[in-house]
Write a structure and sequence with these properties.
This protein is mostly helical. It has one domain. It has 13 helices and no strands. Helix 7 crosses helix 8. It is globular and about 55 Å long.
Length: about 290
């Protein structure tokens, strides 16, 4: 039985990241992806820093550092690819790709920290992957045309890379928290990514001045705040239950949120393929979440 506080934290995580996706999509209309990511990550430092201070748990082991640095590098790469994908594609099409994260998370969790899934859960994840292909089908429900469209879409390819990286990163995050508290890990990751990204931008001659136009900054700041809350909730949830459960529930909320945000705020079309694909994912959810 999953404690209600864990379900609440994962729900906050999913809703927070869903809101952040929308604000990042808006911000990309006026900001370079690197500058947006710098604002996005650095803006989370005060929030996570406050959590760190209030947590009264400053534990960190020397074994943390090699794993933590690896997590930071992977997080930086994945976030840059995520923004590039979000910029060139519909939010209601690329965000559902993150639904395949539980597949890779389960595999990497088994290898790294010994977590496993039963046959019914594997079946549910497979059904979710099939649903994703249907979402991309341009005509009817053909998985073949959907797969072809998926392969040809640049945003889809980029987001698939993001899904693979994040699926590996999830159990690495949990492994990091065996050597530190969740608050310590979250703060270190944001500081590391901010510093590394700033150095990278400077060495490549990119503009490092942050624009002062409120219309540019507002969505970037809101994206940072909502993601900071979501990230903190995610790390706390990791300490309470399986990584695969957190990732699955969070992504389902994100997929539904992307469909609604895309239609209500970005004028994206709701097709039969999108609706049927998301319905399939919802049907698959009990297979993955419940141990029959």
């Amino acid at each position: 039985m999953i404690p209600s506080i864990t379900v609440f934290l994962i729900s906050i995580c999913g809703l927070g990241f869903s809101a952040s996706d929308y604000f990042r999509k808006l911000a990309l209309n006026n900001l370079d992806a690197r500058i947006l990511l710098l604002i996005f990550v650095s803006g989370q430092i005060p929030l996570l820093g406050l959590w760190f201070i209030l947590s009264d748990n400053y534990h960190i082991d020397t074994f943390y550092w090699p794993i933590g640095i690896l997590a930071g590098i992977m997080g930086l790469i994945a976030n840059l690819l995520f923004l590039k994908s979000l910029k060139v594609s519909e939010i209601s099409k690329v965000i559902p790709i993150l639904g395949i994260i539980p597949v890779f998370s389960s595999i990497s969790s088994f290898i790294l920290i010994g977590e496993t899934l039963n046959l019914n859960q594997v079946l549910g994840i497979t059904l979710s992957c099939l649903a994703l292909i249907i979402i991309y089908s341009p005509h009817g429900m053909s998985p073949f045309s959907g797969f072809k469209a998926f392969i040809q879409d640049k945003g889809a390819r980029l987001m698939t890379a993001v899904a693979i990286i994040w699926s590996i990163l999830a159990p690495i995050d949990k492994l990091c928290m065996q050597y530190s508290s969740s608050a310590t890990h979250g703060l270190i990751q944001t500081i590391f990514i901010t510093f590394t990204l700033f150095i990278f931008i400077s060495l490549n001659g990119k503009q490092t001045t942050i624009p002062l136009n409120k219309s540019f900054l507002r969505p970037a700041i809101l994206a940072s705040v909502t993601a900071g809350i979501a990230y903190g909730a995610q790390l706390m949830a990791y300490e309470m239950t399986l990584v695969s459960f957190v990732e699955l529930y969070k992504r389902i909320i994100g997929i539904i949120g992307a469909l609604m945000v895309g239609r209500l705020f970005l004028s994206e079309k709701i097709t039969k393929q999108k609706l049927f694909g998301i319905f399939m994912i919802i049907i698959a959810l009990p297979l993955i979440m419940i141990d029959f």
